[in-house]
Each structure stands twice: as structure tokens, then as C-alpha cells.
Design brief:
By secondary structure, the chain is α/β, with parallel strands linked by helices. It contains 18 helices and 15 strands.
Length: 420
């Protein structure tokens, strides 16, 4: 369990607080209007705890070279609309304009800095926490603020100055969104209601195999149910030929990670054969038609796009009877109507389950929101890669930074610790 401090543990009244947020949003290509303001709304609970502080927001939008890489002026206006109050903006990150704007803030005011990825140090600096702390962006901002709040869980797997650079310069605490993510994921990882099943899928096969392996070896999951690309890989290395086209797709998708992923898959199949549940039938795209095939019908020359009908029914029943369900990725190519069955029924089963459901970010979370099922899930993560890394037991630099700071500043700020 991550041991971090949060905003309920410190007194920020009258302080200048720098908050790293992830409000990276889809924009209309020509008008740059917001197509979805979900991430902007998600930071409101943190801001509600900072009404007596001077608040400085540090954010990014896309990355250099992308069409939606732009400044954060629109984000400040959209946040202001959501809050019903003015949010100041400065076309600067840590230069003279930014320093002056920060120092002129009054208690209760909010200032948003420009897109942090417009700073060369942010996108190019490599190294550990100490190296990050020596960058100009960190040194300058640290000189005018009192506390750093990381509320950008979705970026926590990134080792960049704005995420980990303040580790050695300021007290660093988790924002409300970050706290909710850690608490929600830890609830499933530390003390899951039994039986606990992990349903892994999607196209990120390396991540799926890593998540499954971690949960089995640590005794978190009682069973792993494989769908998507991960299922195809495990079926192949359980001794069934899935067809040259499907094999080559996995090789191409995994790239340099192919051999290490296969090694992990083989080891997992060898050590936990009784706990890994593979599909008994699959759906192939044959001349743009869904054709369900049993494993005995393999190999197939067409691409496998979904789990089969029987496997879908079996998985749904397992989900409904589980105490904890950790869901990562869709069961197939749900964007195509004929191959959405496995994914849709899987999500419906999660919504009907009385168990605690944790859903990784990315396409699955978006689909759940679009189908109006969010409130029926125990925890819907905002972070794709960050969530997968956390579930896979990997160290997230952003959270490691908060843990380091909690240890370092525990004595310094102990006088302001309050009951949580």
C-alpha cells in the first residue's frame, strides 16, 4: 500500500500551492473546442480543499508534434466555467511573467500556467529525482511556492520534472484524485473480497501478461480470465496453433517485448495452469463476418477479433459470482459491432455484480462512461498506463516521489498533521 500524505494531512491556509494536474483533453481539430471536459471536472474536489490557499496549476495538453498540442488558455477558461469563478492564466511557465503572476496571487485565487510540455526540460530531461530537481523549471517554481500537490495519477508512470522534480525541494502530497486512485486500487490489491478474479484483455498484450503474472504470484487473484490479445498469446503457448496471421500480429504488436512477454506467459502457464482460464471458443473476422470457432477449429487464416459466445457466457457467470473483479482492457475489437459482444456482455456482468469492480483506464473506462455504467463500478481509474503499471506491481515514479516526500517531511510538518 502506498504510504503518502494528502491534503487532509497538512495545513495549506495562506500558502502558495502548486498543483500538477492532468487535464489533457480531446479537442475539436479546427476550433480547439473541448469535446470532453471529464478530466477538468475531475480536479474540482482537490480545488475545493484549497479555497484558502493561493493555487497555481501546472498542466499539459498533448505533446510536441501533435495537432492538439496547444496552450492552456482554453483549459483555464473551461475550468473557470465549471467553477463559476475566474481562473487566471499566464503565457509562461517559469519565466518572469509566471513568477510575477504567482507572487501577486491572493488567497483563494487560481492561476494556470502554460502547457508544461512547451518547456524543453520537461520533455527532454532524463535521470533520477535529484537530477529532475536541478532543472530550471523546478528550481524557479520551488522558490515561489510552499507545497507541491500531485493530482495527475494518469501521468504518474512518467519520470519527468513536473511529476517528480519537487521531491527534494518541497513537501509533496497527493491531491484528491490521486488519493482516490491509490485508495481504490489498493482496496483490490491489499484486501480483495474473495474470490478475486482478474480479467485481462485489450491490445496491450505485454501489460495484460504483466498484470496477470503479478496478481497470480502475489496471491491477489484467485483466477485470471484471459481475453483479447493476451488470450491469443496464452492459447498459442498452451500448445494450440492460432494461425500465422494472428501469430504475426502478436509479434508485430509486441515488438522488442515479444520474447520477454512470451517467457513470462510460458512461466505463468507452467506455474498456474489451474488458475488461468482461457476462452474455449473465439470469433474470427472472415470476409467481414463474425464466425465463432472452437479451439479445435484452429488454426484460422483470418484475424481473431473477439472471444466466442460460450466463453462470453462463462466469463459473465464468473464475474457475477466473484467478490472482486479487476478488469483490464476490452475482450475484443469492440469498435466493430459484430465483435463487441464479448466486451459488452463482460461490462454488463460487471454492472450487475455485487462484487467490488476495479476498471483500468483507457478504452474500457471510456466505453463504461458512454454506456452510463460508471456508478455501478467500484473504482473506475482515470489512468491507462499508470493504472496498468500499478496493477502489475511496477514502481510509478510519481507515487514513489510522494512516498519519499512523506518520509522526508513527516517530522517537518508533524505539527500540522490533522486527523484523517
Amino acid at each position: 500500500m502506498a504510504q503518502v500524505l494528502n491534503l487532509r494531512n497538512i495545513n495549506v491556509e495562506g500558502k502558495t500551492v502548486l498543483v500538477r494536474v492532468d487535464i489533457n483533453s480531446p479537442l475539436q481539430p479546427k476550433s480547439q473546442e473541448f469535446l470532453d471536459d471529464t478530466r477538468i471536472k475531475a480536479i474540482v474536489p482537490t480545488l475545493n480543499l484549497l479555497t484558502k490557499a493561493k493555487v497555481v496549476l501546472l498542466a499539459h495538453q498533448s505533446r510536441p508534434g501533435k495537432k492538439d498540442f496547444t496552450n492552456t488558455l482554453g483549459h483555464s477558461r473551461e475550468l473557470g466555467r465549471i467553477l463559476g469563478r475566474n481562473v487566471k492564466w499566464v503565457e509562461d511557465i517559469h519565466g518572469v511573467k509566471a513568477m510575477q503572476a504567482i507572487e501577486s496571487l491572493a488567497d483563494g485565487e487560481i492561476l494556470m500556467l502554460n502547457n508544461v510540455r512547451m518547456d524543453l526540460e520537461e520533455v527532454s530531461t532524463k535521470g533520477d529525482f535529484l537530477v529532475m530537481s536541478e532543472t530550471k523549471i523546478i528550481q524557479r517554481l520551488s522558490s515561489v511556492v510552499d507545497v507541491f500537490v500531485n493530482d495527475a495519477f494518469a501521468c504518474s508512470h512518467r519520470n519527468s520534472p513536473s511529476i517528480v522534480g519537487f521531491t527534494h525541494t518541497l513537501p509533496c502530497v497527493a491531491g484528491e484524485l490521486m488519493k482516490r486512485e491509490i485508495d481504490g486500487l489498493d482496496a483490490a490489491l491489499e484486501s480483495p473480497r474473495r474470490p478475486c478474479i482478474a480479467v485481462v484483455g485489450g491490445i496491450k498484450v505485454e501489460d495484460s501478461i504483466s498484470v496477470a503474472d503479478n496478481m497470480l504470484r502475489k496471491g491477489i487473484a484467485d483466477e485470471v480470465w484471459a481475453t483479447g490479445g493476451g488470450a491469443n498469446l496464452l492459447i498459442e503457448y498452451s500448445g494450440i496453433d492460432i494461425g500465422e496471421l494472428n501469430h504475426n500480429f502478436l509479434v508485430g504488436e509486441l515488438g522488442e517485448a515479444y520474447h520477454s512477454t512470451v517467457a513470462t506467459a510460458k512461466s505463468m502457464l507452467n506455474d498456474f495452469a489451474d488458475k488461468i482460464k482461457l476462452p474455449t471458443d473465439l470469433a474470427a473476422n472472415i470476409e467481414d463476418n463474425r464466425v465463432d470457432l472452437t479451439l479445435a477449429d484452429l488454426p484460422v487464416a483470418a484475424p481473431i477479433f473477439d472471444i466466442g459466445i460460450n466463453s462470453t457466457m462463462t466469463l459473465s457467470a464468473a464475474i457475477k459470482s466473484a467478490g472482486t473483479i479487476i478488469l483490464n482492457g476490452p475482450a475484443g475489437v469492440f469498435e466493430l459491432t459484430d465483435f463487441a459482444l464479448g466486451t459488452i456482455e463482460m461490462l454488463n456482468a460487471c454492472a450487475e455484480s455485487t462484487g467490488y469492480v476495479v476498471v483500468g483506464g483507457g478504452h474500457t473506462a471510456t466505453l463504461i462512461k458512454n454506456r452510463g455504467l460508471s456508478r455501478k463500478m467500484g473504482h473506475l481509474s482515470t489512468g491507462g498506463g499508470a493504472c496498468l503499471n500499478y496493477l502489475a506491481g511496477k514502481v510509478l515514479p510519481g507515487i514513489a516521489s510522494l512516498e519519499y516526500s512523506a518520509r522526508k517531511y513527516q517530522l517537518t510538518i508533524s505539527q500540522s498533521i490533522t486527523d484523517n
